Amino acid sequence: SASATGLAIEALSVAYDKVEAVHGVSLQVAPGTIAAVIGANGAGKSTLLNAAMGLLPAAGTVRLDGRDLRRVPAEERVAAGLSLVSETRDLFSAMAVEDNLRLGAFRRGRSDLEESLEAVYARFPRLKERRRQAAGTLSGGERQMLAMGRALMSRPRVLMLDEPSLGLAPLIVREIFRIITALRADGVAILLVEQNARAALEVADTGHVMELGEITMSGPAAEIAADGRIIESYLGLG
Ligand code: ATP
What we know:
The protein contains 10 helices and 10 strands. The chain has helices spanning 45-53, 74-80, 97-104, 110-123, 125-129, 140-152, 170-185, 197-203, 221-225, 228-235; strands at 7-16, 19-29, 34-38, 59-64, 67-68, 82-85, 158-162, 189-194, 206-211, 214-220. The protein is globular and about 45 Å long. By secondary structure, the protein is of the alpha/beta class. Helix 3 (97-104) runs parallel beside helix 6 (140-152). The strands form 2 sheets. It has a 6-stranded mixed sheet with strand order 6-7-8-3-9-10, sandwiched between helices. It binds adenosine-5'-triphosphate. This is ABC transporter ATP-binding protein. GO terms for molecular function: ATP binding. Pfam families: ABC_tran (PF00005).
């Protein structure tokens, strides 16, 4: 409903030229929960997140804690409490880890910024050890941590993550998912898009299957993970 807290996406549609990549998607993410969107390459998952962030023109409604964000540009959505860690993790390679983090602190005073920085370092001790190192020299896992840390600098109430496990070794994937569950415990509403359906459904509370731009199945993550068709199409035998 319109007054619900967390994120509410209602009837969202996005077209590139004349081709609709996302058709009429609705989903909600309550504070302190993880919603996973799984689906094949090209299903429209990244398009959904980029449109929810306000980076692409879209039809439909996005609400944050009941507030309609339709006319709110992306940078103000960050200030309002919405944050996206994009699949490309676009960091400033030549800049130090800490300077990348500072850029994530949106319109905040100095003491607030230092407090956010300490909170991020507490969450990611590895980033503190490497705070003077150029972002471009980090490992893939460290880069993902930095992209997440930068998103957390704006203290989001809703965090959207696009394929956080992409290209990472299993041990690092486990570490990243452990951090995502810790953020949930802090009350953040998390919208997680993943091709790694198994890992995503293991941590998520609710799951959504996206196919050809539409949500074709939604429900408790455990039920989706136990569904015969989903096992066959997305979970394999592993
Ligand atoms: P992946 O996991 O491979 O990134 P996805 O589920 O995130 O897949 P999207 O990247 O959202 O899927 O793409 C959805 C559809 O929209 C695809 O058919 C894609 O080719 C198309 N698309 C994405 N970006 C653009 C663009 N900038 N211009 C035109 N078409 C695009």
